[in-house]
Design a protein that fits this description.
- It is a single chain.
- By secondary structure, the protein is mainly alpha-helical.
- The chain is built from 7 helices and 2 strands; from the N terminus they run αααααββαα.
- Strands 1-2 form a two-stranded antiparallel ribbon.
- It is elongated and about 50 Å long.
- The model has no long low-confidence stretch (mean pLDDT 97).
- This is Tetratricopeptide repeat protein.
């Protein structure tokens, strides 16, 4: 672990704008359930390449960190920027509905799920 961290730190020392290195620095913390620490690094990945890492951060917030309000905000930004695309095999709307379900917003979650299913059926 220390060798991996040192390699990432050397890479970031050479070029701190490489978003992938920030995301990789976050991963061990997420795997250890230290989401708040990992999120500081993932936020830097999003800062340097939001197009690539914003949806991933939203996914982490939704599924692992369980910061549902923040996840919804990120997913809504993703939808605004690229439409209802996918992250980790599910649409952004699916994840928003899941967040609402976890926030006990059952009617809202159901409505979003149904709309998302309808859109996917049309697409497929």
């Amino acid at each position: 672990m220390a060798e991996w961290r040192n390699c990432l730190d050397e890479g970031l020392k050479a070029d701190s704008t490489i978003a992938y290195l920030w995301q990789q620095k976050a991963m061990p913390y997420f795997k250890a359930s230290k989401y708040e620490i990992g999120m500081n690094y993932l936020d830097k990945a999003v800062f340097y390449d939001s197009r690539r890492w914003l949806s991933y951060r939203a996914f982490i917030k939704c599924i692992f960190a369980k910061t549902y309000h923040d996840a919804i905000i990120d997913f809504e930004k993703c939808i605004k920027n690229e439409g209802n695309s996918y992250v980790m095999d599910h649409t952004y709307q699916f994840h928003i509905a899941l967040c609402n379900l976890q926030l006990n917003q059952f009617m809202k979650a159901e409505s979003i799920f149904l709309k998302d299913i309808e859109e996917q059926e049309k697409e497929l």
